[in-house]
Structures are given as structure tokens and as C-alpha cells.
Amino acid sequence: MEPKERPEADKIDVRAALGVSFEIYRCYFWKLMLLALILVVSVEVMYLQQNDSDVLGLVVEIIAFVTLTWFWAASVMTVKPTAKTGGYSLSDLIAAVWPKLFWLVMLTAVTDVGIFFGFGLLIAPGLFLSVIWLVVVPVMLFEGPGVFQSMSRSMKLTEGHRMNLLWIAIIIWLPQLVEAGLGFLFPANESTLAAVGFTAAESLLYPFLAILTAVTYYRLIAFSGEGGSGAEVDQLEADVGTFDDRASHRLEG
Hints:
Layout: H1 14-27, H2 29-48, H3 54-77, H4 90-97, H5 101-121, H6 123-132, H7 136-143, H8 147-158, H9 162-185, H10 192-224, H11 233-252
Helix pairs in contact: 1-10, 2-3, 2-10, 3-4, 3-5, 3-10, 5-6, 5-8, 6-9, 7-8, 9-10, 10-11
């Protein structure tokens, strides 16, 4: 049974979340673009040069999925507060994801298949799944549980906020669905222009969407009054406080 919606003061402020996400995106923009050059553009070049080999094409597709997951997760990491002057370095972002990359890939594969399948059957199931699994990647990165534990944790955190989170889910998933549809109509391996367009869209848009999921995660943690669970539980409450201070300063500035 869906929990009752919370009072307005206890709801996710979508506009504020977008504002904070944009500020973090702006601060890390050039680092994220360099990371995109390493993880996204380089694989796209491989994809264009695979010479219609089915086996090589499959290998490149798998590599592309892994590197795009890495890129998304590294973007999520920019939201985690740090005392380092100038924020995280490029090597910090890459290294932070590496130990959990395999499980992040598994998590992304499971949730993406479920969400795309839901959208394919009917729109409503896809929207529902995209909302309840909205913060699975931040949960795994910041708390450290496994694949199904991260999915369950995300479901728990979103309880009572799901109607409000629907707008954020639409913002995050609509561009990805559009890209998937265009990719079906205009295969990247058949058109250099299409490949350049898809790569540019992923490089520019995906970091912002990933950051938005992490900003939403921190707000949900603050609303829940819990410190989370997993390997990083001791730092989580302190991180939320630091994030709230930083977010308030940005929005007021």
C-alpha cells in the first residue's frame, strides 16, 4: 500500500534539486568532459572502426555499457562532500568507482532492463520502476550494499515521496528513452553524424542526470532521519549535514 504523501515542507523540492545539481555540474564541468573523453568518446571511436564484425561489435557494446556506467557513477561521486580544496580530482572520481564497478554494472543492467521492459509494456510500470529505483547507484556507492540490497534500499527511501519524485524520474529517463528510440532509427555504426550526436549528448547530459540522482538521494536520506547502512555508514550523517550546508549556500547565493 502506498504511504500517504507528506506535508509540503517534507517533500522533495524539484526546482531546488535541479538548481543544486546544475551548480555541482558547473563546478565539475571540465573534469567531467575530460572523463567523457577517456571513457565515452574513446569507446565510440572503437565502435565506428569495428568493420561490421558481429563478435567485435558485441565486445565493443559491452565495453561501452561498462564505461558509460563508470562515467555515470563517477558523476554521482561529485556530489559526495569532500574537504579537498577544489573538490575531487579526475583520478579521485575514477578510483572511487573502480572497486565497485562490477557490481554497479550488474545493478545498472538489472534496473535498466526492468525499466525499459516496463516502458515497453505500458508507460506506467516503467515510470513506477524508474521512481522506486531512482537512487540505486548513489545507494551502492555511498552505503556499499549489493545489487538487490541497493534496489530494496532505494525502494525504502522513496516511500512517501514517489508522486513528487515522478518529475525527477521523467527528467532523468525521458532523454535516455529518446536516445534509445533515435538509436534504433539511426544506428550509430551506420552514420558518423549520428555517432557524434549520441556521444555528445551522453557526454554533456548524462553527468547532470547522474548528479541529480545523488542530490535526490541526499535529500531522501535527510527526510528519512536514518544514517543509511553499509560500509560508509559512519560518515553518512556527517556528509548529509555538509551537503545541506553547501546546497543552502549555493541556492541562497
